[in-house]
Write a structure and sequence with these properties.
311 residues, mainly alpha, 10 helices, 77% helix, disordered C terminus
Length: 311
């Protein structure tokens, strides 16, 4: 969740939950709690991602209702028994992961508790009420996701790319600082950079699949541009990590020293080539440009004991 805007997420979640609760009352669905919770869980930066998540929540709920409902229907006295509740929750969660419904395991587990704890005239009525409420919650979140994507998908994608650039820049700056520091300090791992690029790809990958709503083509184009920038950011991080790893390897022989120099020069040249693609040209990219400059400068005068000094 490094790329999420807390304020935007909070507003979307609140609006989606409120719409879901109001809709249950208007439609006579007697389960506003479930609808509101699912509406909150299904907000997404893209319509595609929200619909995909919503379908997973619906499938997870149906699966949990089957797992929990079967023993209760067979023997109603088992309802509410901790000896049935616990294994049913475990079975529902395991089934979600087995069927690759990973985002639905919380809703699935809650569905089991729902059927065991809340009072219903019959188990079938409880299952029907649960599924109806989940559908309402998914539809409410989809409406909110649709409106936000239609009105501001480009801004959402651009903001996430800017956040990713800043995080990658911090890791590159840390690499530059390490190259200029005395030997003995642990080399940076660049894990934050790689993690944020993975998250950016996941978010924008969903946006690149947008179809069939006003503004979908623009949202898709923004996501595709962002994916290209994500690739450049990842290459820059990989090159920076390669440089720090090679500098950290102390050559044992003169031949090793020459090979290490050649490898570093090649990596440095490649990093220079990635600089403009990764940083872009906007004012918001100044922090990444600065980090790349610091890293390139540090390559030429690595600190004492680093094992390699470039000509």
């Amino acid at each position: 969740m490094r790329l999420a805007d807390p304020i935007s997420l909070a507003v979307k979640a609140g609006v989606a939950s409120a719409i879901a609760v109001v809709a249950t009352r208007r439609l006579g669905v007697d389960d506003p709690l479930t609808a509101g919770f699912v509406g909150l869980a299904c907000v997404s930066p893209s319509v595609y991602g929200g619909v995909k998540n919503g379908l997973e929540q619906l499938a997870g709920s149906a699966l949990a209702c089957a797992v929990a409902g079967a023993p209760i229907v067979a023997l109603p006295t088992l309802r509410g028994s901790p000896f049935v509740l616990g294994p049913s929750i475990a079975a529902a969660v395991i089934a979600c992961f087995a069927l690759r419904l990973r985002s639905a395991y919380l809703v699935a587990g809650f569905s089991v508790v729902y059927l065991h704890v809340l009072p219903f005239d019959s188990t079938s009525i409880g299952i029907a009420r649960r599924i109806e409420a989940v559908i309402v919650g998914v539809l409410a979140a989809t409406v909110v996701n649709l409106l936000v994507s239609a009105l501001g998908a480009h801004g959402v994608a651009a903001r996430r790319v800017r956040v990713a650039r800043r995080i990658v820049a911090r890791d590159l700056a840390a690499g530059a600082a390490w190259l200029g520091a005395p030997a003995g300090e642990a080399a940076p791992s660049f894990e934050a950079a790689f993690a944020v690029v993975r998250e950016l790809r996941a978010d924008l990958g969903a946006g690149a699949r947008e179809r069939h709503f006003p503004g979908a083509s623009r949202a898709r184009a923004s996501a595709e541009r962002g994916l290209e920038e994500a690739e450049s950011l990842e290459r820059a991080a990989h090159l920076a990590k390669e440089i720090t790893l090679r500098v950290g390897e102390r050559p044992r022989r003169a031949g090793d020293d020459a090979a290490a120099r050649a490898g570093l020069l090649g990596a440095a040249a490649a990093l220079r080539g990635e600089a403009r693609a990764a940083a872009g040209v906007g004012a918001d990219d100044a922090v990444l440009e600065s980090a790349l400059d610091r890293l390139r400068d540090a390559i030429g005068h690595s600190g004492p004991g680093r094992g390699v000094t470039l000509p």
